[in-house]
Amino acid sequence: MTENVLKARLARGEKQLGCIVMLPSPDVAEIIACAGVDLVMIDHEHGSGSLQDYVAQERAIQASRTQAMVRVPHGDYAYAQRILDAGCNSIVFPAIDTAQEAEAAVKACRYPPHGVRGAGGGIRAAKYGLNPSYYGQQATDHLLIVVQIESVRAVENIDAICSVPGVDMLLLGPRDLSATMGLLDRFDDPEIWNLVAHVAERVRASGKYLASTVHPGKTSRDMFDAGYDVLLASKDVDFLLNGAKAMRSS
């Protein structure tokens, strides 16, 4: 594993703008990278991609400035370890509701005695065995661990989740949060944004990085100015859908 460029940028205070990649195509990932975005979140929670698709997509963007992080399936720590072995160095755990769940996510990423990750040999992350030092401090220092806050329960436990060592970033999910409030997609309800504002304030106070999608009625600049460090502004399927709709209506 080489230096985590995304983590280094954040440490320098650089705001990062990116998008979600749902489609498993390396061509799509490469096109988005050619456009110059800071990062893509390859979605293995809702998207259809596999481990091999991730590797192909990550290779497709290596020559660009774009960095990749991967969202793993909900609660699947075994899959998380496989994606790490495949070379992922920025990993997103969805639907983290408690400090205990955040601790489990961190432990899945750490080798014993600090975690439970299996120290397999010949893995891509260790350059297939050419980088034996990977299994030491590199696998900790060069990994960015992100947990998602997307439920009322997570909001209630936000300070405890923020206090978990090893969690680098908290990613707000307003849509799932609205669903757990019984207000799915009712973004005109101020109650949703009161909880979002509370989470954002607590994350900033903790010193952890703060991320989210771009909120309705806000621009990326608005949210960066409000203290967000990473924004996921759109999805690859949105680019295709919006382009097709615009063509149809022209």
Main attributes?
250 residues; 8-stranded parallel barrel; TIM Barrel; alpha/beta
Write up this protein.
β1 (16-21), α2 (26-34) and β2 form a beta-alpha-beta unit. The protein contains 12 helices and 8 strands. Helices cover 42% and strands 16% of the residues. It has helices spanning 5-11, 26-34, 51-61, 77-85, 99-109, 138-141, 152-156, 158-162, 174-180, 190-206, 220-225, 236-249, and strands spanning 16-21, 39-43, 67-71, 90-93, 144-149, 169-172, 209-213, 230-235. α4 (77-85) runs parallel beside α5. It is globular, with a radius of gyration of 18 Å. It has an 8-stranded parallel beta barrel, surrounded by 7 helices. The protein has 250 residues and is an alpha/beta fold. It has one domain: TIM Barrel (Alpha-Beta Barrel). The model has no long low-confidence stretch (mean pLDDT 96).
